[in-house]
């Protein structure tokens, strides 16, 4: 059955909607989170001017464009509960999709349209081109250099945003709000840096204007959303009778905490369950340094033991133990109090969520692009503890588990595949490490910045790596 004919399909009239939001990076998470919040409002007859037009700038996004365009941009969202039951809906809030490499002019026209009031992003942690140590935009990246030289014919997210803001200004239109929904500490601030610094490369004066006039709210986003598998597609066909080229599965838990800084207005997200707050930073840090850091721990220790899924790591006594001790002894002490949240209960709930085997989140997904994730989720706590005399041994050992995994083999001899945009460099330093250069991995400036020069971090890392080789991961985890 076609999605549009399903009893689960939206009852609201989609021909009557206007795209007020342009979203870059329509992956699984955007579709399980922001698009779902909007769908909730649309079902109540609200937010008709806030439908979403997706944009993809990466060559790989053609697949998503084709999948969505072939089914009127509808898709199935399947929430998998821990007891094995499922809650399903067909989501209708995305009404168009533009694939930038094929038609960049259409993307610019859409961004420059008076209808567009919010430009939102889930372009991954690495998509912002930020040096984690300095917080500076990497002006020498290929895309940034291209868009600086050809500001009228951009290829990257930030190049498009800058070009569109210029067109709006020239046309006398107010700037849209730029809302990052990526897992980054201060994601709005980072989006600001990326947009302003991209603009500065071609027009410093306009960059200043953007900095003064464009709003970049910060937000914290949360819903574990694994990669869609063929088995998920088959399940949607068998159980719901639906032909869906790209359904999304996710956990039932969902959270969105955001700053209310939308000069051109916004959907009433709070009426769909989001929390609007003055200061989102404590919530963001809690989520990134606890949930996302725990995911790194489950992934790197679990992969060393040859495990495949997040829930397998989460119920393994040694991995769960070392992960919990990391959270309690090294991550939580770096957090500020979070209004309305008991951090002990939050950590307990994380382990319940991680243990949901119906989600079947893979350790490969959690470890993907770890070179972008470790610097955002784990290394900030290491740095803060080093500064304040706090403990770092479990974080350093997690880095060593990752480093050893990058040599390519689990303890049971199975292969560990490295899927990382910085993978070549990781493989090269892991090779030097395997040949006896014990600190080679942490000398990778892109990931570790100045940390290799810190004697305490280096010693803890090198010792953990040595112990891992001599005693194995289980004994090391138990000793921590
Ligand atoms: N999956 C989750 O559980 C989850 C939960 C919370 C937040 N997030 C955030 O959402 C992001 C995306 O996750 P996902 O599960 O949707 O992944 P995904 O792989 O399904 O989608 C990623 C999207 O980002 C685009 N992208 C990647 N690099 C880009 C770049 N340099 N410029 C522009 N676009 C780029 C891809 O083309 C794709 O459209 C994560 O990196 C994270 O920051 C994910
Ligand atoms: O998607 P990333 O790159 O931010 O990190 C991997 C996971 O930790 C992450 O996707 C979580 O599942 C998510 O942040 C839960 O809300």
Automatic annotation (TrEMBL):
<feature type="domain" description="Mannitol dehydrogenase C-terminal">
    <location>
        <begin position="279"/>
        <end position="468"/>
    </location>
</feature>
<keyword id="KW-0520">NAD</keyword>
<feature type="domain" description="Mannitol dehydrogenase N-terminal">
    <location>
        <begin position="20"/>
        <end position="270"/>
    </location>
</feature>
<dbReference type="InterPro" id="IPR013131">
    <property type="entry name" value="Mannitol_DH_N"/>
</dbReference>
<dbReference type="InterPro" id="IPR036291">
    <property type="entry name" value="NAD(P)-bd_dom_sf"/>
</dbReference>
<dbReference type="Pfam" id="PF01232">
    <property type="entry name" value="Mannitol_dh"/>
</dbReference>
<dbReference type="InterPro" id="IPR050988">
    <property type="entry name" value="Mannitol_DH/Oxidoreductase"/>
</dbReference>
<dbReference type="GO" id="GO:0019594">
    <property type="term" value="P:mannitol metabolic process"/>
</dbReference>
<dbReference type="InterPro" id="IPR000669">
    <property type="entry name" value="Mannitol_DH"/>
</dbReference>
<dbReference type="InterPro" id="IPR013118">
    <property type="entry name" value="Mannitol_DH_C"/>
</dbReference>
<dbReference type="GO" id="GO:0008926">
    <property type="term" value="F:mannitol-1-phosphate 5-dehydrogenase activity"/>
</dbReference>
<dbReference type="InterPro" id="IPR008927">
    <property type="entry name" value="6-PGluconate_DH-like_C_sf"/>
</dbReference>
<dbReference type="InterPro" id="IPR023027">
    <property type="entry name" value="Mannitol_DH_CS"/>
</dbReference>
<comment type="similarity">
    <text>Belongs to the mannitol dehydrogenase family. UxuB subfamily.</text>
</comment>
<dbReference type="InterPro" id="IPR013328">
    <property type="entry name" value="6PGD_dom2"/>
</dbReference>
<dbReference type="Pfam" id="PF08125">
    <property type="entry name" value="Mannitol_dh_C"/>
</dbReference>
<protein>
    <recommendedName>
        <fullName>Mannitol-1-phosphate 5-dehydrogenase</fullName>
        <ecNumber>1.1.1.17</ecNumber>
    </recommendedName>
</protein>
<keyword id="KW-0560">Oxidoreductase</keyword>
């Amino acid at each position: 059955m076609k999605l549009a004919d399903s009893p689960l399909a939206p009852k609201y009239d989609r021909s009557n909607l206007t795209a007020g939001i342009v979203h870059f990076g329509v992956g699984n998470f955007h579709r399980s989170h922001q698009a779902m919040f909007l769908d909730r409002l649309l079902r109540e007859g609200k937010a008709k001017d806030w439908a979403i037009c997706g944009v993809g700038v990466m060559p790989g996004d053609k697949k998503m464009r084709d999948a969505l365009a072939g089914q009127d941009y509808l898709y199935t969202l399947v929430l998998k509960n821990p007891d094995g039951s499922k809650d399903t809906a067909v989501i209708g809030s995305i009404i168009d999709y533009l694939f930038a490499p094929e038609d960049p002019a259409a993307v610019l026209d859409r961004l420059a349209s008076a209808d567009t009031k919010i430009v939102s992003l889930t372009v991954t942690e690495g998509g912002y081109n930020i040096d984690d140590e300095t917080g500076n935009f990497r002006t020498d990246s290929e895309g940034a250099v291209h868009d600086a030289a050809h500001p009228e014919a951009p290829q990257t997210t930030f190049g498009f945003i800058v070009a569109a803001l210029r067109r709006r200004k020239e046309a006398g239109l107010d700037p849209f709000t730029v809302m990052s929904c990526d897992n980054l500490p201060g994601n709005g601030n980072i989006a600001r840096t990326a947009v302003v610094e991209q603009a500065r490369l071609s027009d410093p004066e306009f960059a200043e204007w953007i900095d003064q006039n464009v709003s970049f709210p910060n937000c914290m986003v949360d819903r574990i959303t694994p990669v869609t598998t063929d088995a998920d597609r088959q399940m949607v066909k068998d159980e719901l009778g639906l032909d869906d080229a790209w359904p999304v599965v996710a956990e039932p838990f969902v959270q969105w905490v955001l700053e209310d800084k939308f000069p051109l207005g916004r959907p009433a997200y709070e009426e769909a369950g989001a929390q609007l707050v003055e200061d989102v930073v404590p919530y963001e840090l809690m989520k990134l340094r606890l949930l996302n850091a725990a995911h790194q721990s489950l992934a790197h220790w679990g992969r060393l033991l040859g495990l495949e899924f997040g829930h397998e790591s989460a119920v393994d006594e040694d991995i769960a133990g070392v992960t919990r001790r990391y959270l309690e002894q090294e991550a939580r002490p770096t957090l500020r109090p979070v209004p309305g949240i008991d951090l002990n209960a939050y950590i307990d709930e994380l382990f319940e969520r991680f243990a949901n085997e119906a989600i079947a989140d893979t350790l490969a997904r959690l470890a993907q692009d770890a070179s972008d994730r470790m610097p955002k989720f784990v290394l900030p706590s290491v740095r803060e503890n080093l500064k304040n005399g706090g403990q770092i041994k479990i974080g350093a050992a997690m880095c060593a588990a990752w480093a050893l995994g990058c040599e390519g083999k689990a303890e049971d001899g199975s292969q560990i595949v490295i899927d990382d945009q910085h993978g070549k460099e990781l493989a090269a330093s892991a090779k030097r490490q395997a040949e006896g250069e014990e600190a080679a991995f942490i000398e990778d400036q892109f990931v570790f910045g100045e940390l290799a020069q810190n004697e305490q971090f280096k010693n803890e890392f090198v010792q953990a790596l040595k112990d891992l080789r001599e005693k194995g991961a289980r004994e090391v985890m138990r000793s921590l």
